[in-house]
Predict the structure.
Amino acid sequence: METIIAILLSIDYALIIGIISGHYLLTYPTIFQILDDTSAIRFQRKILTRFFFVLLLFSLLAVLITFLFLERSFIIMAGVNSSFALVGWLSVPIMNLARDRNWIKTGSFFEKLTIYLTLSIFIFALTEIIRISLSN
């Protein structure tokens, strides 16, 4: 693997890891400490959609880089990561609708789904950084 491609892909995955870490370590704890519950939930609804959209963009960038320059196993992992980000992005409006209509089980399911998808994206990005560093 060419060094420049490895660096670009590693930076892309590192940005994904950084976005997820910042969101869960800084944003979430802070909004519930500073804002009242109603404002915190409104803020969370706005930011969660954008959060998954940004993850989707960086995941698609990884797909593009791997498609153009790397072997198939890297493309598959980048595609899986993008799929998870897309499902998360599409799940947020459904989760919000379920909460608005007081569908507790449905809202809870989609909330857990977004958490598991985010964790999976984080783990895949970390795994890919390790794979990239080992392939050089």
About this structure: Residues 3-135 form one domain. The chain is about 95% helix and 0% strand. The first helix runs from residue 3 to 34. Helices lie at 3-34, 37-69, 72-100, 104-135.
